[in-house]
Amino acid sequence: METMSLAMARRIALAAQGFADPKPPVATRRHLKRLLSRVQLIQLDSVNVVVRAHYAPLFARLGGYDQALIDEAAWSHSARKPRMLVEYWAHEASLVPIEDWPLLRSGAKRPGWWRNYARLVDGKPTLVEDILAVVKELGPIGAGGIEREVVGESKRRPGPWWDRSEVKRVCEWLFGMGQLATGTRRGFERLYDLTERVVPPELLARQVGPGEGARELITRAATALGVATETDLRDYYRLGPDVTRQAVAELAEAGVLEPVRVATWRATAYRYAGAKAPRRITGRALLCPFDPLVWERARTERLFDFRYRIEIYVPEPKRVHGYYVFPFLLDGELVARVDLRADREAGLLRVPGAFAEPEVDLPHVAAELAAELGLMATWLGLDGVSVGARGDLAAELGRAVTARRG
């Protein structure tokens, strides 16, 4: 079994995620397709402190692209520009290439949280029929609109935002079961449509068994990760342990995966046979908390010696680095982290805190980070960057931002 250094494993992982590719002057649908061949999926999340989570990984890899590029790929369809992406539960709620729909519906994935609504569905079969009838007639339509049609405005049960109505729960169950899909979005509101009006018939007709689905999904995970442990591969699409171990064993026997030892890693790793190992990784990127390079925190720590936690749900006095923190990737290393907030009213990208990793060149990191923050501010339509006082990098970063401004 080959033994590779941690530095090589890191370069392989970064190349697999698209960080060895040059950023295009203007990103096109072709660049998006190439990026998807690297990362395989893009996670969705409702937090909009800086920008919605599905936009940020593209900025990290493509630079200041037009956000309509991904909107059109995911939520519109025409003969000239067919739908490229579809929403489904992959890592979490995700955008995936529409061709992968049969794999995600193959039975390889663990049942999702929506299975908890099965008892409600079994007890109210007519509610399912009513919802499907409304969507068939009026879709794409949001859950609130469906509820008004099915229940009637006067009968809606008020409650806090987390107390979902029966209609909304059944909509989630139908989405999880693949009977409803996201036809489009209005703002960030999901508008449901019948799956047969979203997914092409040839994909709906394709039958894939759990074993084949697991092998295909693990192959995609290995493509995206480059080198990974079995648990890393399993987590990418949230597969079950038994089906993952079987798929990994079969893919290793077929030569798709190569067992390797990575220095400092306890578990056996698997290198994707097609993975590239560039001599160097250069460039810089801001990584949102839901970027596929860092979303699995144990892997991030193992790969970069970078302990990273999202602190959104931590009470403010107990936060270490801030509310919504972006790691900063520079020349193949995670060298800093910045707490970010887009203040759209003031037209500023605010940096309440900036923190350097040990033994980095503070002036150099600050200058590169200031440049990337400036690009992000422009991309978001903001006028500039404002740096707060928290963190050991804040003062140096503030000077670098002022120097660029001036």
**Number of E strands:** 14
Percent strand equals: 15-25%
Give the count of helical stretches: 16
Query: Spans of 5+ residues with little confidence (pLDDT < 50)?
Result: 159-163
Order of helices and strands: EHHEHHEEHHHHHEEHHEHHEEEHEEEHEH
Distance between termini? 55 Å
Helix/strand/pairing category: alpha+beta
Q: Indicate the radius of gyration in whole angstroms.
A: 22 Å
Q: What summary fits the major beta sheet?
A: 5 strands, mixed
Chain-averaged pLDDT: 94
Shape: globular
What's this, in brief?
With 406 residues, the chain is α+β, with helices and mostly antiparallel strands. The protein has helices at residues 6-16, 29-39, 56-62, 68-75, 101-104, 118-123, 125-138, 143-151, 166-176, 201-205, 210-225, 230-236, 241-253, 297-304, 362-379, 394-405, and strands at 2-4, 42-43, 85-89, 93-97, 180-186, 189-194, 227-229, 257-262, 269-272, 284-286, 325-330, 333-343, 348-356, 384-390.
